[in-house]
């Protein structure tokens, strides 16, 4: 799917506060009886940032696909207060990367995710410096009526208006049209160049680009003097096939930061769902096909989580971080935001990484790849 999912968590997280990203948790904060004070101590050290092009971002971002999506995620406007609280908690604990898109929001709520994100930034009660360091990465849909670079620039301006900001951190092409409308592709690339040259975005990125198209657009932008900052793909223990690993290797070799969306497989890696307990709506149909074949992976996630005194989602997200990507799990509640934050401040060992990957390979079912991802 073209963004990050929200999901419901079964247990309260037990994040550790540690000064090292490489040291497993051994502090009293990992005790199941410890209740970390909300909005007081950061769940990881906020000054730990990674480079993404010209930007410094947190090792994990949050996705906002669910904000405004009634069909898949059951959004209602009554949720906005809780979403604001989740946003505030994330920012107060050092998260400064938020991913959205101009197509997020169903029906009359199209663009709602961007509107809410802009509002939450304006209403954030913290210091102005913290607000100014927030990086918004939004994606512009390759709609069939966006045929010229100017139309793509206008899409960027519309996003700026919805969020009421002067500049976007990362302007991303949501998907490639190479599979079905090759002539449109060049216009979209020129649109990225134009919005960068006009100063509407600090950096540019792509989403759902396969290995071949990723190299092509990188080389094209390089000639135009525009660095490709990021590439966003579905990447998780459920989505670590040949194409995904090739994309990761290309990103590493070209200095592109890989952003992993759906790091929890739309919620399948949370441990909440079973063949007899499926989510409502379209996700349930997908889960029915995949969940029965995930037992080796889910069992290994559960074992490592128990040993680490973490939760299964925290282990799955930490795997993405250990692979050198920036995961962007979705959030719909304070509880989810708090649990996601518990994926930071520690690292899986090399043995644990191998155990998880072996279990993933031993699981007969895999995540269905986004139909928009090109070769």
Give descriptors for this structure:
disordered N terminus
Question: Could you please describe the fold and organization of this structure?
Answer:
This protein has 375 residues and is α/β, with parallel strands linked by helices. 39% of the residues lie in helices and 12% in strands. It is built from 13 helices and 10 strands. The chain has helices spanning 70-73, 80-92, 112-123, 128-132, 149-163, 182-197, 211-223, 242-254, 282-290, 295-308, 312-322, 334-341, 350-362; strands at 50-52, 55-57, 62-63, 97-101, 135-140, 168-173, 201-207, 228-234, 257-261, 326-327. The strands form 2 sheets. Strands 3-4-5-6-7-8-9-10 form an 8-stranded parallel β-sheet, with helices on one face. A two-stranded antiparallel sheet has the order 1-2. The model is unreliable at 1-40 (pLDDT under 50).
Can you lay out the helices and strands and say which pair or pack?
Layout: E1 50-52, E2 55-57, E3 62-63, H1 70-73, H2 80-92, E4 97-101, H3 112-123, H4 128-132, E5 135-140, H5 149-163, E6 168-173, H6 182-197, E7 201-207, H7 211-223, E8 228-234, H8 242-254, E9 257-261, H9 282-290, H10 295-308, H11 312-322, E10 326-327, H12 334-341, H13 350-362
Strand content: 5-15%
| Morphology call | globular
Oligomeric state: single chain
Note the run of SSEs as H and E: EEEHHEHHEHEHEHEHEHHHEHH
Please state how the strands of the largest beta sheet are arranged side by side. Answer: 3-4-5-6-7-8-9-10
Average pLDDT across residues? 86
Number of helices: 13
What is the share of helical residues? 25-40%
Largest sheet: 8 strands, parallel
How many strand elements? 10
Q: Low-confidence parts lasting 5 or more residues at pLDDT below 50? A: 1-40
Structural class: alpha/beta
Distance between the termini: 16 Å
The Cα radius of gyration reads 19 Å
